[in-house]
Amino acid sequence: MRLKKNIAVSESGFIFDPTSGESFTLNPVAMDIISLLKQGKNDKEIQKSLSDLYDVDEATLEKDYFQFLFLLNSNQLLENE
Amino acid sequence: MQLTVAVSGLNNIDSPGPGIPVIRGLRESKEFDVKIIGLAYENLEPGIYMHNLVDKTYQIPYPSSGMDALLDRIAYIHAQEKLDVLIPNFDAELFPYIKSEELLKEMGIKMFLPTLDQFEERHKSNLPEFGKKYGVNIPPSKPISTISEIDRLYPEFEFPLLVKGKFYDAYIAHSPSEAKNYFTKISFKWGLPIIIQQFVKGTEVNVVALGDGNGKTIAAVPMRKQYITDKGKAWSGITLGDESMLKLTNEIIAATKWRGGMELEMIKTIDNQLFIIEINPRLPAWVYLAVGAGQNIPEALVKLALGKDVEPYENYEIGKMFIRYSYDLICDLKEFEKLSTTGEL
Question: Residue A7: is it exposed, middle or buried by C-beta count within 10 angstroms (0-12/13-18/19+)?
């Protein structure tokens, strides 16, 4: 799964989906994940980057990361590669 | 170019008519310098008193007064103002204007309305046939004229379902007793038939569009309501970049050779299917969002009415929003008195 190509993400952490008209605000961690997704990184690469950036144990990081992906998917912000 | 344009739908209230947004578009035209003649049914329609937008207002008889009364009044107004174009904005008044289009044209008043066939076949009660004819998804629906028919809707329909008036109003009913309440409420206000439509779960999205009468889409802007009032009206909305909505709009305009302004009301389901739930044969009250997003649809409609060639709009700004607000106009009693006694202001 990857972030839909037409999703607009601003530097302030505001996401706008032009197809649905929905908008969302991101916290700093979510902004990091979105930024890495936009760079085309895979799950392992993203989790590695996050563990370098944040003081977090591996299990918590994995759980929170996939919860966030689930949230993105349920809001129709992801598409199949 | 100086033009005198008559516009109805000045009821800029919590369930607003399209008149004032249409006028705002015309006022922003770079091609026309317009004199706006308001056509009002009620003496408290706010647009009457918006002198920065409406130059002069005349009261006109309700469509129920008959075609002759309306045409006599329009002839009188035309004698005073020399109207170039008339833009009716209410569903209920479209039928007499469509029937009179040629007559008004002979008088020198131009309009750009759907044909009678186009107007009739997109009626709420005819939508299922419309869907079959043009290959468009329409939720199952049927017109009913007696309250007892509600008890016989199952198994053809399941609750929840929508109970709709022939012109306005729609309510979601979760049980036969709720449906009966809405039947009584709506039929009292708008008459019969009442339309029963299967509720489709999804997001309501709309398109404002303009067809040239030959199958070409001159303008089209999709929108999603962001805030909806208790009357189901958009209090805020945002333009969408949804190709599937534009494609469906172009297909409908091409197949029907739609002439004039229209609003397509759609439901987009979770699996991205589009269902048409209503086709309104006129511009909607949110048309000024399209103007703000780069497509001056009222201006293009006037150009089509004048017989000019109009290049289709190809772009609009995605993510443009509108937010309505209410505003207290302070008016002098003398103005209200003048309109109430002379029918003109």
Answer: buried
CA atoms of B196 and B182, how far apart (whole Å) = 11
Q: How far is A76 from chain B (nearest CA, A)?
A: 9
A75: phi then psi, degrees, rounded to nearest 5: -95, 15
- Per the CB < 8 Å rule, is A8 touching B319? yes
User: What CATH number does the domain located at A2-79 have?
Assistant: 1.10.10
What's the pLDDT band for B166 if we cut at 50, 70, 90? confident
Check residue B20 and give its pLDDT. Answer: 97
A46-62, pLDDT tens digit by residue?
999 999 999 999 999 99
Nearest CB to A16: which of B205, B242, B319? Answer: B319
Q: What is the mean pLDDT of each run of 10 residues along chain A (81 residues)?
A: 88 92 94 92 94 95 95 91 75
Q: Which of B40, B10, B4 is nearest to B22 (CA)?
A: B10
CATH among 3.40.50.20, 3.40.50.720, 3.30.710.10, 3.30.10.20 for B2-112+328-342 = 3.40.50.20
Q: Does domain B201-323 have CATH number 3.30.470.20?
A: yes
CA angle in degrees (0–180, nearest 5) for B127-B244-B202: 65
ipTM of the complex: 0.77
The residue ranges of every structural domain in chain B are 2-112+328-342, 142-198, 201-323
Q: Which fold has domain B142-198?
A: Dna Ligase; domain 1 (3.30.1490)
| Cβ of residue A10 closer than 8 Å to a chain B Cβ | no
Q: Which of residues 35-54 of B touch A (CB under 8 A)?
A: none
CA distance A29 to chain B (A): 25
Q: Which residues of A touch B318 (CB under 8 A)?
A: 18
Does B146 lie at the interface with A, CB-CB under 8 angstroms? no
Residue B14: pLDDT over 90 = no
Nearest to B345 by CA among B12, B88, B45, B48: B48
Cα B146 to chain centroid distance, Å, stands at 28
Predicted confidence at residue B65, as pLDDT, reads: 87
Instruction: For residue B267, list chain A residues with Cβ-Cβ distance below 8 A.
Output: none
B226 contacts in A (CB within 8 Å)? 21
| End-to-end C-alpha distance for chain A, whole angstroms | 6
